[in-house]
Amino acid sequence: MKRLNCFRLFLAYFFIYPVALLADEVTIGIYNETNISSMVFSPVKSSYIMVTGASENLIVKEGDIIYINFVGDSFRVMGLNTVYGYFSEVDFLPSDDSSIFSVKAITPASQRRQYDDKLKIRIRFNRMQLLNTVNMEKYIAGVVQSEGGVRATMEYYKTQAVLCRTYMIAHFHRHAEEGFHLCDNVHCQAYYSRCDRNPMIAEAAFETVGQVVVDVNDELILSAFHSNCGGETENSERVWSQKRSYLRSVPDPYCQNTRNSSWEKSIPLDQWRDYLAKNGIKGAKDYDYSFFNLVQYARKTHYRVKSDSIELKKIRSDFALKSTFFSIQASENNIIIRGKGYGHGVGLCQEGAMQMSKLGYNYIEIINFYYKDTRTVDYHEIGKDVNAKRDSVLLK
Ligand SMILES: [Zn+2]
Ligand SMILES: [Zn+2]
Hints:
Layout: E1 2-4, H1 6-16, H2 18-22, E2 25-30, E3 38-45, E4 48-51, E5 57-60, E6 66-70, E7 75-78, E8 83-87, E9 89-94, E10 100-107, E11 113-116, E12 118-124, E13 127-135, H3 136-148, H4 154-170, E14 182-183, H5 199-207, E15 211-214, E16 225-226, H6 237-240, E17 262-268, H7 269-278, E18 302-305, E19 308-311, H8 312-318, E20 326-330, E21 334-340, E22 348-349, H9 350-358, H10 363-370, E23 375-378, H11 385-391
Parallel strand pairs: 2-14, 16-22
Antiparallel strand pairs: 1-5, 2-13, 3-6, 3-10, 4-5, 4-9, 6-7, 7-8, 9-12, 10-11, 12-13, 15-23, 17-21, 18-19, 20-21
The chain binds zinc ion (2 copies).
One zinc ion binds at residues 228-229, 252, 255, 349, 352.
């Protein structure tokens, strides 16, 4: 490792990276659910500049290893044979736009993960906090890879990129109290690594740069999606009690004969009678089994037996069913549940969207099919306050 003085470092950073400094960035709390007490940092591509607040900064080259151990009110920073000191905050600044680093938690042990751009490590709430400040489109590509899989089409990836970007911008404030924008797990959007498994995903993010979906009032939409709707998507208020003008039920001819389009489950009749009796269906233990049949040509919200009922979403949750879009056929010994689709059914149906893209529809047509009366626009156009909103999350 080579030492640089602050002035030379400043000049190097200023002259080499003005573009990176101007790019739209977002700060993600990575390993947000893990309380890390020791970890390893290493540049995977290009080099990093380690800034600790000490008088000299270090250049950390590709393949070099930095060990960081949490020791109460600070952490110890070490190279292979050198202790650099004890600090409460360390920044790893990329030497160029293509810099990639890896992090591997040692305690608790975890898989090595790779990310683009910057890393800040600091102590907050009596634990180590890891913040990845990253170009927004690189972040979107990482999310699409984590959420949308790696074997799809370009128009499908563009669709997912626009939806993940819409979510990101609508949720800049979600972790403001902790001093970053979004976390890296499903509480916000899964972001378990940079996009490294399919270059088409990164291309889709950059080709749709800045694009988001808005409703008729130019408000960012709630970009809900699910795996397979079973042939008909669901109105939002039937799942979450919030009505949204664009989350309307639409017949979906595109998701038939796909992986999750149909499923089946058998439950012993006695178990079903017990379950119903415990959940307010009076007389469930005595009724003839024929009363337990259910048919859903279109989506219903309740399962009715004579004058009593149970919400279908409760049955779905209690029996870990893939969806609420199912029929029941009862017989002397058991009931057969035959279902369609996988997920809550609201918004975009992923397997349908994938099929649409294979049939030649583009991402805007796909988005318009699943979200009624919406437009895809550049987020810079819909209100000058979006960047201000992002920046108002003070990194405290
Ligand atoms: Zn979160
Ligand atoms: Zn569908």
